[in-house]
Specification:
The complex is a heterodimer of chains A (112) and B (109). Chain A has 112 residues and is mainly β. Chain A has no helices and eleven strands. Chain A has strands spanning 4-7, 10-13, 19-25, 31-37, 44-49, 56-57, 64-66, 76-78, 87-94, 102-103, 107-111. In chain A, strands 2, 4, 5, 6, 9, 10 and 11 form a seven-stranded mixed beta sheet that branches. Chain A has a four-stranded antiparallel beta sheet with strand order 1-3-8-7, with no helix packed on it. In chain A, strand 5 and strand 6 form a beta hairpin. Chain B has strands at residues 3-5, 9-13, 18-25, 32-37, 44-49, 53-57, 60-65, 70-75, 84-91, 97-99, 103-108. Chain B is globular, with a radius of gyration of 13 Å. The chains are: A mainly beta (112), B mainly beta (109).
Chain lengths: 112, 109
């Protein structure tokens, strides 16, 4: 692994289903982030984590949850997917909270 | 509220120079970032400004004026591979990045 990986690459999901997007980094970065990117809008922060064991809410956290059990992994869970959660999801990490962020390749999620 | 404004789309010619502007109104300021994003790919870091002035990095330069809430990204000697979206982002008082919607740059031969 080099950098940040995300899985799956893409997914079509029925509304109401539970889904976990996976994110793993091997750079030993302290901070990690989840963003969604929608056409015509800037990246919007969903949740973030300053360090393992801590998480915080971003701009659009409703309907999403995260956990940070260790430094490397930062999964994002949609408890009950809705069509408005159709988006491209990017995971990112940085050495510390204010540092340069490095992005994973993204997950394209479609909720029908 | 917090706001980052940049043009939606710009067109330039291969070999030329283009300037992409970004204006911002945010709660606090702890630095401004420029990222490049090719279609279907992840954003990649280009530059960071925290003090007023010009930062030069090869063909790319970025300028910041904190008093005017203004930045620009200057791309010289444009190449076809520079066709991408350019994202401006400001680190606010909570150390969260506030992102503009991006400027799609189209390079014509």
């Amino acid at each position: 692994i080099a950098g940040i990986t995300q899985a799956p690459t893409s997914q079509i999901l029925a509304a109401g289903r539970r889904m976990t997007l996976r994110c793993t980094q091997d750079m030993r970065h302290n901070a990690m982030y989840w963003y969604r990117q929608d056409l015509g809008l800037g990246l919007r922060l969903i949740h973030y984590s300053n360090t393992a064991g801590t998480t915080g809410k971003g701009e659009v956290p409703d309907g999403y949850s995260v956990s940070r059990a260790n430094t490397d992994d930062f999964p994002l869970t949609l408890a009950s997917a809705v069509p408005s959660q159709t988006s491209v999801y990017f995971c990112a990490s940085s050495e510390e909270l204010a540092g340069v962020q490095f992005f994973g390749p993204g997950t394209r999620l479609t909720v029908l | 509220g917090q706001n980052i404004d940049q043009p939606t789309e710009m067109t330039a010619t291969e070999g030329a120079i283009v300037q992409i502007n970004c204006t911002y109104q945010t709660s606090g300021f702890n630095g401004l970032f420029w990222y490049q994003q090719h279609a279907g790919e992840a954003p990649t870091f280009l530059s960071y400004n925290v003090l007023d002035g010009l930062e030069e990095k090869g063909r790319f330069s970025s300028f910041l004026s904190r008093s005017k809430g203004y930045s620009y990204l200057l791309l010289k000697e444009l190449q076809m591979k520079d066709s991408a979206s350019y994202l401006c982002a400001v680190l606010d008082s909570n150390y969260q990045l506030i992102w503009g919607a991006g400027t799609k740059l189209i390079i014509k031969p």
